[in-house]
Every structure is written in C-alpha cells, then in structure tokens.
Amino acid sequence: MRIFACPHCGHIVYFDSPSCLECGADLAYARHLREMVMLDDDGGYRDDEGLWRRCRNERWGCNWLAVDALERAECYSCRLTRHQPGEDDTERFGWLVDTTHAKRWLLFQLDELGLPITSHREQPEGGLAFDLDASTDDRQVMIGHLNGVITIDLSESEDSHREALRVSLGEAYRTMLGHFRHEIGHYYWQVLVAASDTELEAFRREFGDERVDYAQALDTHYGTGGTEDWGAQFISRYATTHPWEDFAETFAHYLHITDTLQSAAAFGLSMSGPGTRFPEASDLVSHPSLAPADATMRGILADWQPLALALNQVNRSLGKRDLYPFVIPERVVGKLGFVHRLVGSAAHADARSANSAGASGQ
Ligand SMILES: [Zn+2]
Ligand SMILES: [Zn+2]
Ligand SMILES: [Zn+2]
C-alpha cells in the first residue's frame, strides 16, 4: 500500500482516511486517478471525467468516490458487491465495515498490479461479483469462488470467531484480507489460466493436474489433515488439497508479499542487515521498492525474506506471534514465479488493449 499526500496541506493521509487529520480537509479516494482528492464545500469533486461524490456507503467506512450520476451513487468497489445484508440488519451491517475495508485494499492492489477486472455488471456470466453474507447458527456460509462470484462470510470479521476457526483448523494465519486474496486467486485462475491452453499446460506442470476430483480432494484434506511432509512443496497445508487451492494460496502469498514490500517502501523502510560479523549478513539486506512487481520473482524474494525475518522478530518483541508465519521452500519459489509471470503478462495485455482502445477513440 502506498501512502498519500493531502491535496490541501501535503501531510500524510492513509488509504482509508475520510479527511485529513492535519487540516481537516474532506478527502476521498479516486480510483480512476489512484489518488486522494479533496472534496469541495458541497461534497463534490469535479474533473474531466465529470462530477463525483462520496460513495453512499460512507457511514460504514467507504471513502471512495462515486460518479454523481450513478443510481444511489455507489463507488466501483461497492458496485462489485452483488448481495449484502439489508440496512435494517444492524449487527451484520456492522461487519461490513471491516469486510469492505479489506475488499477495497484488495482492489487497490489489483489496480496497482494492472490486473484486469471485469465486473458482473459488464459480464453477468463469469464477471467478478462479491456476495457478502453471514453464517448463522443454523446456516453456514461457505467462503469460496464460483464462476466469478466470490462469497465471503461476514461473521469472520468478528475477531474472536475468526481466531477460533483458525485454531480449530490448525492454520498459521487467517484474516479477511487473506480470504479476499485467496478467492481472487481462483477468479484469476479462471480468467488467466483456464482461458488459455498454453497457460493451462504450464499450470499443470507447476501445480499438478486440476482434473482430479475436487470434492474428494477436499474430503481427504479435512478427513486426514493432508500429508505431513507438505512443507517442502507447498506454502500452506491447505494448498495440498488440490491444484486449484495450491494456486489460490500461492496467489494470495504473491499479493501478501508485494503489498507488504510496497508498504515498507512507502515509508522508506530498508534494511542494511545485522552487521558484517555474521556470515549471512549480505543475504539480510533489503531495499523494497514502491513497485515491487517490476523486479524478478527472485529479486522480490531477495527483498522479502530478510524483511519478513526482521518483522517477525519485531512482532516477537511485542509478545506477538510472527507477522509472516510461513517458510517459502524452493518448490514454492517456482510457483510464485508462475504467478508473477502470469500477473505481469496480464497487466501488459490490459495496458496494450487500453492503449489501442484510446488510439482508435473508443
Ligand atoms: Zn491536509
Ligand atoms: Zn463505496
Ligand atoms: Zn480456495
């Protein structure tokens, strides 16, 4: 995540800021500019694209701009949501604050990486949509992805509930942002891998054959807990269940790593290492960049591994568990490299099609 400058006074503002803490200016995030803009006294922002206003969902934390002419003036992120609790459902509606914050954070990163997004409004079959629903005592919402539709269980925005699930499932890490990053991995598998015979072949070489029975694979996982020696080949135990899950887990880690490197770079965080008296000193140097995905995967990991090590130690100093409780084996470096190449070529293809559309005046 980048940090932003208040357009009025220049002080730092954060991605989720609705106003500047220094000068009080009313701010909103303009996705089409990937910048924070200042609203005028009437709550509007005008540029070449027209008149914009705050998204109507500002009272549960949305600080994005919406096109003024749109019905009910919802922003791009909120318009990707297909279903959510009604406003009279106060408890569940409250869970939307954390959940939609994670969703906007995800979307910012997809834009930063240049990944294409086709909304369910443009493409009802296979377009991206979010169904935000909440489990109850007698009905369980399954978090998942199906043909462009990502379902998220809002009840997991309750820390105590999500943490209990994490412990009972034996997971090292479980967050709302992590859920979004995993599920969007399934979406991009469908859009970028399944749609291309060449990519599908390359995917099978790296992750295995996805045509094995999915339901049976999941049964085996939840029944036996997967194989014990998974650590040499997979980023998480869950990744062992099926090539689709392996890809989604790897994709999520690619997003974890590149976003955290960008956040570090935004503050100028850099590591000179623990000192030359240690033989591994030269491996523990990190100089993250604001555009980490511009490097090779090996280059990204050369900055990431020492930073993760240091951040884990920082967390331990505060009595917390590791910030990044994962080890990346050599086999997973290859899988991350696959995701990196896929993301890079999708971004270039998207930029090319945007340029040619611009050139022909469409
Ligand atoms: Zn300001
Ligand atoms: Zn919104
Ligand atoms: Zn999955």
TrEMBL record:
Residues 4-86 form the Zinc-ribbon domain. It comes from the Bacteria. It holds the Pfam family Peptidase_Mx. InterPro entries: UCP012641, Zinc-ribbon_6_bact. This is Zinc-ribbon domain-containing protein. It comes from Agromyces rhizosphaerae. The lineage of its organism: Bacteria, Bacillati, Actinomycetota, Actinomycetes, Micrococcales.
